[in-house]
Design a protein that fits this description.
Radius of gyration: 23 Å
Number of helices: 12
Helix content: 25-40%
Low-confidence stretches: none
Amino acid sequence: MLKLQWLQVHQFRSVRPGTRLSFSPSFNVLLGENGTGKTTLLELVAAVASSDFSALRQEAFDLEYALASDTGRITVRVRNAPSDSEAMELGMDITVAPRDMAWPLSIRREGQQVTVSRQDDASDVVHERIAPEVGGRLWLVLMSGGIAWVEKTGEGTAAVEPLLAMAREVSAQAGLGRFDEGLAYFDQLYQVELRLSRRAEGVLATGTGLASEDLLDGLRKVAASQWGSPRFVLPAESIPFLRDSARLLGFASAEALLSPLPSQAQGKYETLSLGHLELVFAGSGGQRVSARELGYGQKRLVAFQHYLAHARAVVVADELAHALHPRQLRACVAELGTRQSFLTSQSPLFLDSLTFDSPEQVSSTFALCRREEDTGLLVWEDLSPEAAEEFFTAWRAAPQRVGELLQARGFW
């Protein structure tokens, strides 16, 4: 799984130029008062972790960052100069060093022009034009660079397969967004539209909106048997996020309901569109409750379980603990597993659940956010080694008081 190693901001909104943050491969917690840019930082992290800058097409920015996993490392500098055109005026300088390639590849994008070169042979350069719809999507630029290299050299795709594998890893994080502090994500759950295509080899299911693989996989399992029905019923056993939500909320079972939408046949295959999603939970006595009728905290729990089903490598969540019962919060934190997470929380309950093995882990876990009074600039910075050492020493003496220790040192 690709994880974000560091981020440097040369230009972005009101962030102080030269800001550089290093990140932990597990927990990253943003600390600061309201108005210090924590949500802005979360949204920026989501953009660079997914390497999709399409939402920022109308903003000027200049960023550097690094992504790394067992498959290799990617470093990127990306710049945008907005124009009246719909196409992004995007510049990218990319160095890709896949683990199984003897040499790194340099890729430069300026507008629709891509230049590819091998770092140990600067004279061997490929020029290739890419379509405007590539937008700010890094994985498509990597794919274009790999294909251009193969066409130029005739080496065959095996020569760049490690590069293409890394491009697929980046693609797997496409669509990553911020889990909001309210119910916006929950409301978006009901805007999904799924499309089925019945073929000889089985039913193909695709979706728009927040159509997680959990939901699509569950639909594939029942689509053939329920084809033509006025309502498709997907039991929670076939949808892990719904099954886990029912368990954490204390329900006996749950199901997802979808209804056919008016649609036109496309191609030679029989197709069907589904929408009007409903999530229904059932108690041990048989009483049924729509997810729309759940309490505020219950809705956030359902939404977060769905978010986790989509965010398989990186989690970006604002006020994770908001409205969650302590037992549910502990379960959600446990389910983060090996994902890299970027979190904010004003709850000491969440902070007190954190543990540390060293001052270095403390330093990499916390990012401090503040606003300069004289300039109004947002200042984001890592915890200094000295502050991390002092905190770690105090935490070992009182492991359950993370929130108090942070407040006593003016960090939270």
